[in-house]
Specification:
By secondary structure, this protein is of the alpha+beta class. 37% of the residues lie in helices and 26% in strands. It is built from seven helices and eight strands. Strands 1, 2, 3, 4, 5, 6, 7 and 8 form an eight-stranded mixed β-sheet that branches.
Length: 192
């Protein structure tokens, strides 16, 4: 991996560690396999435990921007969960590969998981949204040579994705607000 890419990955990790000061943070090298690793070289998933900013776990990619930035801009992704589980590390690696492999995820996009988010969950897609639980402090990150936007990957149902297609992203987010959706609850009822 080039020195510039490594510097960008390190900058994202430093940003996440600063934002989550007082939380345990572990950098994990996910097992992508050799061919996928070439698409997202140097990818780390930062696993953030509960702490002063909240009781949930956060999983953050560090390496998407370095692998697929355009004109100095690109995303990294965060997912919120109620527990620490290797499954979420693997999902973040899958998101990174999907994005860097040519699908270019951005605000308002969605991605099929291909199975339930967790066993027994009706959520089988991820919706890319603003990182509402964390705010602009986590969302905006400067890296050498550009700017990273950390976006939230929210587990959603197929029915919610269909609703978004028909009525728009903001209409779906209003339904989440009205229902008081708990994003870390894998067994929550669909709002659509």
């Amino acid at each position: 991996m080039s020195e510039a890419r490594l510097s960008a990955v390190d900058a994202v990790e430093a940003h996440v560690r600063t934002y989550f000061e007082g939380h345990p943070v572990e950098a994990v090298d996910p097992d992508l396999g050799p061919e996928r690793r070439d698409v997202v070289p140097g990818l780390r998933v930062l696993v953030v435990g509960p702490g002063p900013r909240g009781g949930a776990w956060a999983y953050v990619t560090a390496g998407c921007w370095a692998a697929a930035q355009e004109d100095g801009h690109g995303p990294e992704f965060v997912m919120t969960a109620g527990v620490r589980d290797r499954r979420f590390i693997d999902l973040m690696a899958m998101i990174a590969y999907y994005h860097c492999g040519g699908h270019r995820l951005g605000l308002g996009h969605s991605m099929p998981i291909g199975e339930p988010w967790t066993p027994g969950s009706s959520c089988d897609h991820l919706l890319v949204s603003l990182p509402y639980p964390y705010g602009p402090e986590l969302e905006h990150c400067r890296v050498p040579g550009g700017h990273v936007r950390v976006l939230w990957t929210l587990p959603v149902t197929s029915a919610e994705i269909e609703f978004r297609r028909r009525h728009g992203h903001e209409a779906l987010e209003r339904l989440f607000d009205e229902a008081g959706t708990v994003p870390t609850d894998p067994y929550r009822a669909s709002v659509a």
